[in-house]
Amino acid sequence: MSKLENRSEVQDIIEIDVSQDGDVCNQDELNTLYQQPYFCSARKAVGLEKLYILHVDCEWKSKKLAAALSNHSVHLTSTDTLDKISTFIAHDQTIVDVHFDPVNLNCVLTGSSDGSIRVWDIRNPEKCSQEFRDDTDQKIKPFLSFDINCNGTLLCGGTEKVKSDTHLFLWDTRSPKVLAAYSEFHEDDISHVQFHPTSPNTLASCSTDCLVNIYDLNEKDEDDALQFCLNTETTCGRLQWLGYDMKTKQESISVTTSTENVQIWDVEEASPKHIFSREKIADALRRKKSETCFAIRCFQRGEGQDPLLLAGSNTPNRGCLRMLKMSEGVLEPFAILFDEKGGNSQTIRGAAFNQVSGQVVSGGEDGIINVWMPGEVKQVASNNTRKVKTEVLSKKFGGAHGSKKPYSK
């Protein structure tokens, strides 16, 4: 068997006794291991009805947050206090992702399984200002993922497999006409697409066909556009560019698999650097049951810093949400994200990370958005009054090697 997961291996379905789940050590030991303090600075529900938060994106400069909900709407709030800005229906089918325009900060984009990607001016979101779709044969191509590049000039959408074809569609954001369509590179559903955070013509896609593809969109010919093909040997779920490592001179990308494993790949060598199994993730989280642990997404922290993995456990009333540092093939405890009111009971579906401040925003299946800030909250008495005020004691986030050129995503 290769060191990658065996694609043909099928795991038996077993019943898990979650009453025996929990941490393998006490709280004092956890606090010693997880030395970067975080606290929940805001927590709000997106509505009174039962709604899932499917995806989130943040525009950190203007302090806006967009959450895609299970009722096909988008919920807009501030990123710090979660004060509501507006809510609007964006599609009549499932929203597969949401992104802020990196150039026009008043625009948010949504993609849907209805086969469309829409642009909304959040100052007046009653009607979309632009729509992108492929209707050359009058058939709907349901999107599973989409992305906009770092300078806001290109848009890409990846589709489900329709009959025998899957498609990657590209648009110049100035025109609804399809710029290019690739249909030969994946044989199954395209689960995620992501542009490179600083190279606007570099794109990655992954699929349930186990492949991760890297494209150079400067190449006009479809065959020339494909630069690298990485065979993960397992169903792929989500990508994340991890940046260029100045020490190793390597460009890395992570992929989260359907088995809750995380693989880190050297792009140019087309080879896996590190593989973190579900068991390794559970061990790093200090959890008893690996079956309840899940990988949410990876975060790039910036130049010279190790990337982070947001992971957790969805054990009822005993869940957890934590960040692990991915350092040279080793998962190290980094931060505990604990919600005293919610107890981390919800399964997280979407999250965003601010590379400058270290702020994390998460949302999940209980319809709750949490804002997490690095630092400690200490109750101190005011000298002038008998009232108690909250003082935030922050450590400099990220250690000695701060990010000089933080990515926008």
UniProtKB/TrEMBL annotation:
Any coiled-coil regions, as ranges: none
PROSITE patterns: WD_REPEATS_1, WD_REPEATS_2, WD_REPEATS_REGION
Highest taxon listed in the record's lineage: Eukaryota
Matching InterPro entries: WD40/YVTN_repeat-like_dom_sf, WD40_repeat_CS, WD40_repeat_dom_sf, WD40_rpt, WDR89
Annotated SUPFAM superfamilies: WD40 repeat-like (SSF50978)
Descriptive protein name: WD repeat-containing protein 89
Source organism of the structure: Daphnia magna
